[in-house]
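User: I'm preparing a small set of examples for a lab meeting where we compare how different chains pack in three dimensions. I only have the primary sequence for this one, and I'd like the structure in token form so I can line it up with the others. Please keep the answer compact; I'll paste it straight into my notes.
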Amino acid sequence: MTFFLAFLACPKTVEPPVAAVAAPHPLDVRPEIGAPADFAPQAPQVFTLDNGTTVWLVERPGLPLVSVRMVLGGGKAMDPADQPGLVNFSDTMLTHGAGDLNSTAFAGALEQHALSLWANSGQATTWVGLEATTDTLEVGLDLMASAVSAPRFDAEEVDRVRDRLIGEVQMSLDSPATVARWVADSFYFGEDHPLAHPGIGNQTSLTSITAKDLKSSWSARFAPERATFVVSGDVTQVDLKAQLEDSFGDWTGKPSPLPEIGPAAQASGYYLVDNPGATQSVLRVVLPGWQADDPHYVPATLGSVVLGGTFTSRLNRLLREEKGYSYGARAGVGAGPGYGRMVTSSSVRGDVTALALVDMLAEVERITQGIDAAELKKAQGAAITDAVSAMESRSSIAASLAGVVAMGQSPDRMAMELQTARNASVSTVNAAMATLDTDAALIVVVGDLSVIQPQLADVLPDVNWTVVEK
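Assistant: Understood. Below is the structure token output for the 470-residue chain.
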């Protein structure tokens, strides 16, 4: 009893209550970022039709849709010197009547079967495209075959298309970005080079082109041995081959030899184009780059991504985010027959044209000094994203592989480029960018000369500018 009473008399030690630990808010918890998927672009199946035409096929079962691209050598490089725009005009006519169907009937047949058929011209290739369902592929291929093997070039339709193309030329001359590209190409490739002129032509040449000229251009370029089909969608090789043989089996042609496309002149210099009243100026800087087979080409694409290939690129961060000169700036690497180049471009406020140009040129110079590991990782991520995007739909697959054909590359080119990009190191990218010759830059500025010339004279007093007419 004594013990019990003593126990009761002793004060108890009260433990403080344990505070409840609040669970973190879901938005405060960052997810773990896993390793990127080991994605590789699917290589196409390659086979040949009886008439010698090559076919690349990527089967995409599921949605009953099929995308077809036909790529033929030629393009604007086959324009006669005195008839720029002839090839584009001729290619445009392919879907304006063929075989027994005039333009109205041909368009009606496409609409009846919900088909999309088009043709356009590249630098050294023509592309003919078809979008169809699995059920309408057969009739679509028949119409496509008629367009490429028996276009009509009816006089009334030629005149109608001519008027439309002349209107497009006039609209293009009102686009500062287009004018900057045309001027840059004319000097970069050099006078009389087959790639120097705008593929759409000009009002004078388009006015003089006849239906006979259009037909001659078509017959000089279209033949089965010069064509490659690229197909993606819900169709098997067996079925596709049978349908292509049925539609194109009788196609014949005797094309003219493809032109020899020499190297670009790669001229440098500073050029101005007046755009009176414009509140913005277009800047375009072209540097000699790398052809597609150059070992530096793929590493250089990563370097160009760092310079201006994403929203967080050096150019965009400086000109848009820090300085507020522009809504955006871009840089990219490209290659074609006989040339390679890197192009940077931006539309900037007219009142800061000179300052923006100095900053752009400084960033171009700085990229030749190299990139760091963090920038390389971001560029590699962008390369993977681009590769995935290129293979995410049947139409993007067909378009991407048609581009590979146009470059004259092998069917595994996309997978090779991605693997090379993944394996690139800071040193390989920096070695590529170090080969850029910034002294060989060709610079075009399109803007209101009354506003920008005084700026340029003040900021770049030692530069001699050449004023070019549109």
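A couple of notes for your slides: The chain has two domains: 45-248, 269-467. The two ends are 114 Å apart (CA to CA).

User: Perfect, thanks.
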